[in-house]
Amino acid sequence: MSDYFNLLDEWGPEKIVVVSDPDIGMQGVLVIDNTARGIGKGGTRMTPTVDVPEIARLARVMTWKWAAVDLFYGGAKAGIRFDPTSVDKERVLRSFVRKLRNEVPEEYVFGLDMGLTEVDAAIINDELGRGAAVGTPYELGGIPYDQLGVTGHGVAEVVDEIADQQNLQGSSVAVQGFGAVGHSVAKRLHELGYRVTAVSSVKGALANPDGLDIPALLQERAELGDDFVYNHPKLAIEPGQELFTQADIVVPAALQNVISTANVGDIKAKLVVEAANLPTDAGAQAALREKGVTVVPDFIANAGGVVSAAFAMEARFSPFRVDPTIILETVSTKLRANAITTLEQAQRSGETTHEAARRLAQERVRAAMDLRGRRVLQPSAV
Length: 382
Fold this sequence. Notes:
Blueprint: E1 15-21, E2 26-34, E3 40-41, E4 44-47, H1 52-68, E5 74-81, H2 89-99, E6 108-109, H3 118-128, H4 145-148, H5 150-165, E7 172-176, H6 182-191, E8 195-201, E9 204-207, H7 214-224, E10 236-237, E11 249-252, E12 271-273, H8 282-291, E13 294-296, H9 298-301, H10 304-314, H11 324-349, H12 353-371
Parallel strand pairs: 3-5, 3-6, 4-5, 7-8, 7-11, 11-12, 12-13
Antiparallel strand pairs: 1-2, 2-5, 8-9, 9-10
Helix pairs in contact: 1-12, 2-3, 5-6, 5-10, 5-11, 10-11, 11-12
């Protein structure tokens, strides 16, 4: 059995709650990492392999995400070790959330992550009462995240802001991925006047230096899913090579670690904006900085979902729907400003943009901890 005390450091976690129900095979955990800036907020995932260290790591990521975007919630995450395709999913979910009634919603509010859907959020609220979860169906007052494309919209707004600073507005962009995030990135960049020259799906990649017909590809994706790439054999390129085409801007919006020390030398872009989580490794980040390539970190660029989750938090007890226009405008304003702040910090300190963003987030959390009289954890003498 793991020694969970090894997970503790000066930031947290403040609370680790492990629960189970042997009668139905439910096992789960809630990790509340740091609430100096507000109550714990982060998604809940259900997979057969969930473990405590994984959820603790993700809770810490949420601490930095909320602080980096400068919204006043704390980092937390929950996980259920169970197969989300099982017919017993609802029974296990209800058991899990009942076990956490002492923490929810005063210290933590459920959100959606791997294995959970809008219907599951509705079930959580049915079990614990209104306000226990966000991400509920539109019919119950929820915000339609995927329909709005808030994460991809925010990434595109960041691209436009930094491109304006670097005289790259309206230039060529390669987008890896055309899924929930990637397709909304391409859609918004097309609306802003950029020439999207490459896109990809799990079925293949397309490129055209003169620019792709994004509205047509969006329509094909709606009809065919990832198979839309098969409609354009003359534009097909080797999957993965879309990142290394002759584009001024690259947006990795699909997988982790796709730009590494092994291939970073092949990057031809002047600007990389991370839409996926962890698409570059530390070595690649340093190498890109040395090459003079600007990199906007993932938890700065893809924080549109975090901003919209904050709106959902505020709307939990309201009878009125949130105006989607206000959400998108706030995502744009917030993310553009945060991206500029991060780049300015990196320029002053000589750090990579990832290092500067993490340090900025840590400074904000530390300031909140100090104001609340919280002190650095001292090691036990025994």
